[in-house]
Amino acid sequence: MRVLVVNKYHKLTGGADRYALDLPRLLMSHGHETAFLSMDQPDNWPADYPLYTVPSGLTNKTWKGAGAGERLSAYLHGVYHRGAGAVMAKAISEFRPDVVHCQNLFYQLSPSVIRAARRAGVTVIQTLHDYQPVCANNVLFTHGHLCEECRPRRFHSILKNRCYNDSASASFLAFSAKVVHTMFGLYPQGVDRFIAPSRFLKAEIESFGVPMAPIDQLNYFLEPAAYEPQFDPGSYLLFFGQLLKHKGVYTLLTAYERLGMDVPLVIAGTGPEETGIDRVIAQRSLKGVRRVGYKKGADLFDLIRGARLVIVPSEWYENQPYAVLEAMALGKPVAASSIGGIPEMVDDRVGRLFPPGDATALADVLRELVSDERCLREAGKAARQRVLANHDPAEHIKRLEEIYRIAIKQSSTIPG
């Protein structure tokens, strides 16, 4: 089978990219031909398969400093990027895929890539890494709290709350995109079949009642040979991931302040909350907290292996976070918020759950676990076994091939 993978990035910025970049290798190892379509960025990862790229526009980081002309261009591209559609048409003509497997598209690529595939009669699959089909800012979280105000299709709430990047102009883009995509049936109606890694994400999106194709649940996969575990407890607590408000780092800092134990906390990652986090660390004199910046590959794995346990204090409806998966695969127990898809992964055998946003409960969990080396070691072993059982690459590709076959059989074209 020939599969064209589509993701806005061909580099690692988060969990969606991790899956998008791992997928071609898995497909090729099982005899499938693969190509990739993404934005053209100078730090794109090298590829050993055909890589089709769309000229980059503005990103979340560059939007605020952009001029009026750049913003207008980005606005039009976010709603419907004709250039991305043209690149998709070229990729289909040259690569001739049986399936286009989309990952994260918004707002850089837009549903133009889906429409181009459907016009060419190619089946379109999308793995859902967030809540884009029902939420303009993707995460059902705004201004420090969970939000479902767009249920069902009350798109004006996007403007009222300025929920996309806390920006009126960016939120107007998200509002316009939702209206246009819905009015013309571009998204999510253009996709033949969806995949949700967590049962929670599948059920939550379905609960909105938005007309769309069926959603199949399929866990992410990890290659076990790439994750050499270390079960002996390390010397520090660890958070790694993007530094965003909804990732719960401020709750973690409060919990650490209340912990009252002489154990360091390491924070790895970058993001818009770096300055705010540094300010809190300084104001509260949290001398045991150390930020180490962005880590990846072997450096990240070594950092995880050296941890006592990994903390995932998310306050949004997490899907199936790689922070949990990779920590468990490396033999580390996880203390995580009981929110979204996380309770499907974590229980008392592999770590502990605590209520999201509850710093006191998190401090209690850490206090319980930190000194119990036997518990940490046994939980780490159980965590590793759970990942091996539930995230096996061979099972993933078997199920994925089945989903591809069903979608190809059931797919139909939309009006051009």
User: Strand fraction band?
Assistant: 15-25%
Portion of residues in helices? 25-40%
Structurally, how many domains make up the residues?
2
Order of helices and strands: EHEEHHEHEEEHHEHEEHEHEHEHEEHHH
Which CATH class of the largest domain?
Alpha Beta
Number of helices: 14
Supply Rg: 21 Å
- Give the overall form: globular
Distance between the termini: 26 Å
CATH superfamily of the largest domain: Glycogen Phosphorylase B
Biggest sheet statistics: 7 strands, parallel
Contiguous runs where pLDDT drops below 50 for at least 5 residues: none
Q: Would you tell me the overall average pLDDT?
A: 92
What is the CATH fold-level name of the largest domain? Rossmann fold
Q: Going across the major beta sheet, what is the strand order? A: 3-2-1-4-5-8-9
Helix/strand-derived category reads: alpha/beta
What CATH architecture of the largest domain do you see? 3-Layer(aba) Sandwich
The count of β-strands is 15
Please outline what is shown here.
The chain is of the alpha/beta class.
Summarize the structure in words.
Helices cover 40% and strands 16% of the residues. It contains 14 helices and 15 strands. Helix 1 (15-29) links the parallel strand 1 and strand 2. With 416 residues, the protein is of the alpha/beta class.
